Structure of HTH luxR-type domain-containing protein:
Amino acid sequence: MTQQALKKRITSFITSRTQNALERVRLVVYICGCITQVVFWTLHLTGLTGMKDSVLYTFSVILLIANFASLWLYLSKKVDLVMNIVCLAYLTQLIQSLRVVYLSIINPPNVLPLLIINQIGSYTILLYITICFVPRAPLYITAMSLISLAFAGFYDGGRLGLDLVIFMTIMTILTYIMSGFSQKAVNSLQQENTVYQDTLNGLLHSFHMTRQELIAYARLSRNKKEDKHIINAFFSEMDKRAEHNIIKAVKIRMAEIDSEKIDLAKRYPDFTPTEIEVCKYIIEGNTQKDIARITGKSESNVSTVRGRIRKKLGLKPDDDLRTKLME
């Protein structure tokens, strides 16, 4: 399988399992977390890392089984993603805390590096649950981590130095606080996204349009020049009924505009078509900037046309052009 084909299959899997960006982040973090744990606990059970101890091996087996079980439950759609993330994080943190307590009690010769590694593991779990933006979960993870840290720091005179305990405590608490702010930010973004989706759906419903039709219409409306590709793209997104209605509406509106222009041309027979068009927009109350945007011309060009109109009407500098045209 080529790299591109593999990337396509992964993208397809993530898309089929998620509905928004937040769920995609959670899924990617969850899968990466499971893979990391499986690799780490397998390495410990094979004796390549960690301390060789039956109790610690038992902890690793439990977590290895838990990760496979979690993945199976998720892939078989028996448990949703958030529940899987929370349950696995709680169990992993509980086991990590038990590891710290157990190591503090048996006090092996290399207890300090082992405790530091396990506390780093606890901190990683907190980061994992923080990145997943799961409400309330960081609180319980933080509590379990601090309890085991306190035990390691003060049991039987302390297995960890006070400086390490203070440093790890501060890092854990700050990360928990960060998770709270992150969660609030995500909630705010979700609310804004909900309002946006409701507004968009309401707009589409009101005009009986699809999302693709609205995008095509917006592109056409914002186009400053006559681009056949954009026009063709616009009508390609329309069904025959919508196309017929649009063309009919444009014809009616063009007839109205032409009628207004004819009236102006009769009043000002010496005006050019461009001057007649600018007069129409001035009567409607459009500013020079508005007229430039509507006609796709520069403001200096519109200003020049306005100057010619004023000259032909014989207006003085302090005379109002719109008032004169509306007489």
Remarks:
- The chain has two domains: 3-182, 256-325.
- The two ends are 77 Å apart (CA to CA).
